[in-house]
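Tutorial, part two.
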Amino acid sequence: MEAIRKHQQFKISREYDTQLKRLYPVPGLQTPFGSAYATVDAGTRSQPHQHHEHETFVILQGQGLFVQDGHKERVASGDVLYIKPFSEHYLEADAACDIQFMSIWWEPQNLAEQPSSTHHLIFTPPPTPNGDLHLGHICGPYIAADVIRRQLQRKGKNAHLVVGTDKSQSYVDLKARQRAQPTQGLFEHYSQSIMQTFRHAGMAFDSVYDCDAKGHAPFVHDFIHRLQERGVLHHQTHDYAWCEHCNLEVFDAFARGECPSCAQPSNGCVCEDCGSPNNSYDLDRLHCMLCGNTPQLKSQTKAVLNLHACREHFAQAGLQIDAPPRLATYLRHQELQPQRDYVVSFTGEWGIPAQAPALAGQTYLAWIEMAAGYLAALYRGVFDQEPDSTEQAIDRLNQADVEVIHLMGFDNSFYYAYLYPRLFAALGLKQLKITFVVNEFLLLEQSKFSTSRNHAIWAKDVFTDPVDTDWYRFYLSLKRPEAQRENYRHEEFEQFRQDLGERLQALASTHRQRLASFAADLDLQQGGAWKRLHQEYGRSFEQLRQQLDNALSAPCGYSVKQFTTTLLQLVDSLVRFQHLTQEHYTAQAAVEQRHTSLYLESAAMLGLRQHLACLMPTATAQLLG
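Running the prediction step on this input gives:
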C-alpha cells in the first residue's frame, strides 16, 4: 500500500446524508478499526442511525448540535465525541457553516485473544487391540478429542492430539489364547484396523505413541527404576492366583469374580463398575477366564506399588486436577480409603519383561508400562523429541507451560485420574495441569454394545465415505454421554441427518442468493443502520459465539455435547433471522437496513461455518459452501 494517498484518490460517497471519504481499512491493509472523513452541509443534519460498534467523532471544522439518544449538546472545532453502541445519534450543522469531522469506529470485542505459550496435550485411552472399534467406543473419547483439537487450533492455540494402541494389555493375550492364534499376529491385525478407523473417522491426530519403538522398553525400565529410587515401588513376597489347568497366572483379564468393594462382577486389577483397585486374587468367587476353574493361591516375589507413599507425594506436589463432579467424588472417596500395596508384575511372556533377577519370568502390568509411555508422549508432544530419561522428562516438564486434556470413560478413572498423577508426583512432577473429560456408556437401542452378542455397529462398516462419516460425527457428538448414559437409535440418526441437512442447505442457498444480489454494493465488514431486530439478533449471535468458544474450554470441561447443542441453536437463530429479514431484500426496503441485515447474517454464517467444520471437516463445505 502507498505511504501517502492524495486527496483526489479518495472516492466521495453520499452516506448517512453526509459526504463521506472512507479511509481505513483498505485492500492490503486490514486495520482493527474503521475510519472516514465526513462533511455535514451547512443547515442540514446527518441521518439519525445506530450501530453495534463503538465510535468517536473528532470535529475538525465548524459547529452545530450533537444529538445522542435524545440528549442535545453544542459542539465545535476540536471537540471529541464518543458514541455508545446502539445509541441513536446525528450531527446538525449550523446554517452558517459545514461541519467537517473524522469518524473512527471499532468492534466491541475487537481485542484479539492474547497469544498463549501453553501446550495443550490431548490424550485419549489407547484402545486395546483385541477387537475392532464400534460406535460406542468412537462416541466416547475419540471424536470428542478431535473436535477439541480442531477448535483449539482454530483459535490459534498450540494443540497436539496423541493416539496409540495398548499393546501389552492382558486382554490381547487372552483373546489370542481363546482363538488359538499367535498374540503378536492378533495385535498387529487389530492395531492396524484401529488406526485405519481413526483415519476414516476424520481424526487429525498429531502423533502416534508406538509401543514397539526402539526407545520404549528402555524408558519403561528407567521409569520403574526411578519409582524404586523414590521409594514407591519395591520387591516383596506376595500372594498370587495360579491356574493349574491352563498353567498361567490368573490376573487382570484372566481373572473374573466379584469385586470385594461393591460385589459386582469384575475382572482383576480394577473394578469397572466402582473403580476400586484389587490384586486379582482378592476377587470373591475368583475363576480363570480361559477354563472357568478356581485357581490356587501361591506366593512369589512381585513388583509392588506402595499406594500410600504415592498419595503422600501427591499431597505435596502442585499438580492441578480438574474433574467433572462424578470423577471428583470418586477421587475424594479413593483418598479416604486405606491404601493396600498394589501388585504390578505377573508371570507371563506378553508385555515388557522385568529385568530384576528376583522377577525372572514376569512382565509388568500394562498400566504401569502405559504410565511410562504417557510421560514420554507428553514430553514428545511439548518438546518434539524423545526423552533421554525419566529424570530429564520430569525436570523439563516442570519448566513448561502445559495443560493435559485427558478424555476417557469413567471405567478408566483409577489408572488415569488417580494412579498416574500420583506416580508422576512421586517422580517429582510439580507443574502440570490435567483436565479430565469423562464419558459414560452409549447404549445401542437401550442395551449396551456387546461384541459377544453381536449387538454393535462397527465403525469400519459405517465410516466408508467422508461425508457420511461427518454426519455420524455430528450425531454422536450430540449424543455424547457426558454426564449420563445416552441411547443411539439408527432411525433417529437418519431422521436427524435428513432434517438438519435440508435446513442447512436451505440456509446456505438463501444466503448465497442474498450475497449474489446485494453484496457487491455493500461493505460487509461493517453494518449500516441498526433497528431493534438487529440489536436483538446481534446480541444473540454474539452470545452464541461466546458459548461455542466457552464450551470447549477448561472452565466448561471441554463439553463437546454443549458445543454441538449450541451449534444447533445457532442454526435455529439464523433460520429465524433469515425469515424475519426477508422484507429487507425487496426493492422498497431501505438500503441501510438491508446492509445491517446482510452484515449480521454474513458474520453469523461465517461463525457457523468455522465451528461446524470442527464437527464436520469434509461435509461443511458441501453444505454451506
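The chain has a mean pLDDT of 93. In part three we will examine how such features are distributed along the chain.
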